[in-house]
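TA notes. Do not distribute before section.
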Amino acid sequence: MVTPLEKARKDPDSMKGKILKEARLIFGEYGFHGTTTRMIAKRVGIDISTLYYHWGEKGDLYAAVILDITEDLRCKLEEVEQVIHGKPLTERMEIAIDMMTDYLFEHPEISNLILLRYFNKTRTTAGFDFRVPEFISDIARSMNLCRDKKRISSRVKMQVLAIMNAIHNFVSGENFFRPMLGLERDPYIRTTKEILKFILIPAFRDLTS
């Protein structure tokens, strides 16, 4: 049976697709508990009954948003892996930082939702989640930090998390950091990538040398 999420991803211009798109943005801005289905319906320009018809309860729609973002991240990481495969470590990291930073700045709701999900005290208790452990394994293998992605030490996992969290924090914190730094958006994004490379590449180059 085709799920509502599969239908929405197949046809983004459908009503299911439009609701999913706006739900991602609103959940990303206000989190699960700060978002209401009425807020989403208003943004889409529909009544609340139409939203319930297409997606059911708020928890069902939130679950779909998390799965949708997870699939998007998986596809992006696969794209990055294809580009950097076989290159020297420094070049791999430079390309990966550029590609992932640009992607996440284009879709800031991803970083917002990940940080809200893992650092907010009012986490939901749903039986679904971002596939972070799988992502960590794939990134560690891609960076040659491990030979077998099924057997990764806690230290290596934390090294990968340091990269992920650094990017997510600069993306999610843009509206707070930019006024403080006096930067327009393009210079902020460019400087973010420069600083990430300045900090991360030497650390991992020394680690693997």
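Switch to the second chain here.
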Amino acid sequence: MKELPEFIAENPVAIDLAVEIEHFRLARPFVIARGARTHASVVTVSLRRGGVCGRGECVPYARYGESIEGVVAAIAAQRAALRQGMDRASLQRAMPAGAARNALDCALWDLTAKEAGCRAWEIAGLAAPAPTITAFTLSLGTPEAMAAQAAHEAARPLLKLKLGGHGDAARLHAVRAAAPQAELIVDANESWDEAVLDENFAACLACGVTLVEQPLPAGKDGVLADLPRHIRLCADESVHDRHGLASLRRRYDMINVKLDKTGGLTEALALIDAARQLGFGIFVGCMVASSLGIAPAMMLTGAADYVDLDAPLLLGEDRVPAMACAQSLLQPPVAALWG
């Protein structure tokens, strides 16, 4: 990570902002239905007040109309408000949910915790996060390529398959044969349509899949309300924050909570509370980020039925210090990283 620029504080509440773009090499190409990537490209925010610095990270996502340049500009536009002492509550009012707000919100949590000399979960009134099993993601590919990935990772307890629509039944059977003991969950990334639903769900049942994430495109998923529920369905692209959550009750059993969608930890905690009240299960997910982007999400894992925070495991290079993880058991972040 680049050195932070020099900050000059003019008053006790003023927060000085630095924002930069960073790229982290992946261990191998990461492929989903929308395309492939070889690097995690992130926007990093540093907030300094006095001699204390808090950091946050986000991953702009084109699927949601975001770009790196647009997110950097949106963050920079809050510079004056931060100089006037912006806090998390005023940030929620000033910016919509999304990647830009996520980086700022998580940086404010980190700054507050470091100023108070405690951990962020203490400020939130939560128990300290425990070591947590994370899913490990297999990239989309041919049945043979996915089977090879699965065989290499077969000892992991939870594998998540990226699927792509047509041909998914063959992919599922190939992976199950290569990893007979692992629990399998799948993520279609909106790539299915009604023509393949029956075939793909049947393959999921035959292969013992326990959860299917976002099979149909957001806004075109109404048919899910009338399907027999043999496997739990999880909304991802169909849910960002609390807005519209109630309308998904008949379509999905769970929701995927990602900080880059909710616009930060503050809204994510509120979304989980609202979702639980409506009877949804909780899946805590992530974008392809560095350990700094994953660390705040560990505060959500105590409420989760499934955790998919494997981004640090997909990297060929990461921050120092990084999140520690051995055989899918993810450890809470050290204070030097975040929170």
